[in-house]
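Model: You mentioned two targets. I'll fold them one after the other.
Researcher: Yes, keep them separate.
Model: Target one:
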Amino acid sequence: MNILVSDKLSENGLKVLKEVKDFKVDVNTGLTPEQLVKVIKDYDALIVRSATKVTREVIEAAGNLKVIGRAGVGLDNVDLAAATQKGIIVMNTPAGNTMSTAEHTMSMILSLSRNIPQANASMQKGEWNRSKFMGVEVYNKVLGVVGFGRIGSEVAKRALSFGMKILAYDPFLSKQVAESLGVEIVELKDLFKRSDYISVHTPLTEETKHMISTKEFALMKDGVRLVNCARGGIIDEKALVEAVKSKKVAGAAIDVFEKEPLSADSQLLQQENIVVTPHLGASTEEAQVNVAVEVAEIVRDALLGKGIRNAANYPCLEAEVYKVLEPYISLAEKLGNFCGQLAVGRIETVNISYGGEIATYELSPLTMAAVRGVLFPILQETVNFINATSLASGRGITIKESRLSKEQEFVTLVELEIKTDKETLKVSGTLSANKKPRIVKINNYYVEVSPGGVMLVIHNRDLPGIIGNLGSMLAKHNINIAAMTFGRDKPGGKSISVLNIDTPVSADILKQLKKIKNILEVRAIKI
């Protein structure tokens, strides 16, 4: 498999990839989007940091691309929608630079409070102006933390050790968790009104772009100080400059900008009490190694089928959870594939139900696998785990996921019900003792089917002679039966026979099988 690393990556990370004998790793940095379009077609994976712009044009030109790995937190340089549409997994490394960014934030707060950059610049000029650089203490001040995720919470821990009081705004943070951490959870307007310092730690989205602008500055205390080590654009830079000029804001410390690199004529550089650094939040030796190794490992594991972690467009699975879910993912996909070939008519609804032990886990990966299985017979390689539900939705197929509440006959059960414009098909599956997929029910017929290879699904009347006639016909064409199972509604009634065979059957053989007495229907399925 071919891997392109288009931004500078620590040698520790490259080593992880190069140790896999089936990987060919090319390091080609400084590519423009136009240049990337020309070279991307032959690569299975792309690893970037923040410099490479993975545009829709790049993604559309990628013929083999399966994975995009971003060594860092944000994904604003990757067209996530285009990647998802094409079925490309996009992963990042949100934890690798947590400590680095949290420490940089605290450095910015302290530098801002004690005028350290300005005092250093003055000293280097040979000046000694103690009175000019009078600072303020952070002790007993109120720090408002906007976004209380990994980095925001680490900043709060460090600020608490300085004796600061913490207000936190985060829509997903419960009061119980906040109280256990020694912080007060508040609404955003309240945070703006009460804080002496405000530090933002949210991603840049349509909702957070310019979430702090002229109107928000008006709510704040006179002399408030702001810090942004998260994403450029969260704070409106023009509004910030005006607020600093008017002394509404006593100072700001900014590490990320709306347009990077920051222009030399930017107004942010003209304000003495705005401290700026060139996107250094993750720039520590430890963070660079951490994110490089992490992105290399998650890309490696994804390509080798060992699990998907930190994906922005695929449910994140820890390695231990993946070990549990992997056989069920296989089961769900094979059930879907079986149903997709067996169902008659245009598929309208796919209902997927889970019962028993598996129902306690995150079900999205299983549902994606099942839908991929359903669509695969028609769409083939164009459908995968990432785009399956999107493709189904685009085709007017409704996907429903549920947990079975009543006690089941099996310890764990995955049940697919497909409704078409002609029929309703229901197939249930579980795992055998050795974790192999098994189909245990087709509509109302109990069976014991190993879903794999070439299979014949036969509807027949439950009368003597069927097995012998089937065996004779297949033997005539040198087709060996590997396994056979039967299910019936009642003695002498209708029944179903499922055969695992060693070789495919032609359309002509299928016609001959259908002519056997008491056989009602024959379908060939390949998984």
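Model: Target two:
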Amino acid sequence: MVTRVRSSRLPRFARNEFVMVPLGALGFALVFSWPMLGHLATPGAMDDWDVMMGLKWVSYETIVKFHQLPLWDPYKCGGLPMLGNPQSQIISPFFLLTLLHGPFLGTHLQMIVSLAIAWSGGYVLARLIGISPLGAVAAATVFPASSWFYLKLGIGHIWGLEATYTPWGLAAAWVASERHSYRYAALGGAVFALMFLGSGPDALVYNGVGLAALMLGLAMVRKSWWPLWLLVALGLFTVGFAAIKLVPAYLLMLAHPRPTSGELEVNDARLLLIMLFSPDQSLFRGLSNGWGFWECGAYIGIFAVPAILGLMKARRAAPWIIAGAILLLLARGDAQPLALWPILHKLPMFDSVRLPSRFLVPFTLVVGMLAGYGIDWLAERWASWGASIGLAVMVLATVNCLLVGPPDLESVLQYPAQPAAPAPVFHQIAHGSGNNSMLIPALENTGVVDCYDYTQWNTNVQALGEPGYRGEQYMRGAGSVRLLDWSPNALSFEVDTPAPSSLVINQNYDSSWRVTSGAGSVYSEGDLIGVHVPAGKTRITLRYVSIPAIVGAIISLLTICAMVIVIRYDRARRQLREVPPQIHPQINPIDAV
């Protein structure tokens, strides 16, 4: 009989936890999203919501109306890759909510689901690191109760939704380290890849550094290279799973880089205390570092008390203490002494990253785990009263966070989108007007040339009414052109020209445009889409076929295959460890005769 061996370091979950944790997560999510519960379908487009919902609307419309994959966005900056846009939100399991309920209701529902994901992930992570169920409730609450989520979502920083996956990613990495298991490293890579696939690099960069800080802490405490080696494996799986978007996004950002931030942000101790403890975390309250709370706020309030007590369990909490110290030093920016941010900022992946204060987002998760240890310390120190005191502190701290963060969600409902009737034929306009400068034009079937995106775009696309505007398609020489069919990823024309000529389309050139029907070839006509056409009357169809996305998809599929191989390898290795050595009984020589 084979005896299965369990890791002594990983606690077993009680049966009732599998029921109570989802219920607790859902209850927390509903309570902390209270400002939106009666207005989930309101099409608000406050500040960056305008930009992000414009992207989401175009993706939704491309799939639902045109039955195409959202690979090209003609509505933005004169036309640019949709999948390659690092801020696009189409490869996410929660995009299904958008397809089912539309961009606004779908995204607002995702906010509630994301809070539940953060809370449940925090609870599971806390239990895995040995915190009791009561302490795990406190640990699970701090991260999603902190004001960072409500400030980010209030202003329209959609990446806050994907940041809620962080506890699950850390849980997978922790188990991988405990069991020396590559399959859990692969699982953690999948979680962190979802951050990038869902909304771009922001959640991945800042929370990925938080993961690296934790694994470094584990390596230092255990005096082992395994956590760092597994971190490398997790990173490779992250890149592989995210390749379907990462490859086209990398090429786009290489061609249109974000300007490197000049002056480095300085957050002294006073500023950090304000970010973490000021109860007045108004969305538009400015700080002396030049930013507002929407970028810097991460309220923890009273939860700091059990977190400080958690330092008493220094032996078990040591990796988290190290990780918290690293993240806090990074959040200081260029503040001296021990300024880590300037060093990190010199690395290729971080040279254009701003706002070190965003490292406070994973820092709140560290605070949560320390708070869980603190609740356990109280329960162990005073067996009769410790648990009751810890529970009282936890309830008080939770109510305190409830009064600070969630009110900022009311801004999500501001500036509702009220578009006019869509234009019968797509055309470019110079810029949008009012508070909905990106979303409203997309809803009205018009593209915005002077747009807002992750970087500054220079384009030769002409807007209707501007000098030199010749239409959305025209012939460079003699001849005529008539639009037959228009969709984001496919364009059909009837061209009649007495001699070989060129058709010019008033969108940015991209090498992934192909002539798929008719005679002709695509080229760059002054950075616009040009098509060499032969003499005579012909029909031409162009389609956007993203070769970088195809290459990325192949890499992602190969990564999935690699994960299957790793799972089988881990399973075989575990079975070999679990099988006891064969014991052969001694044979009596007389019996043998």
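Researcher: Noted. Anything on target two?
Model: Residues 17-42+110-412 form one domain.
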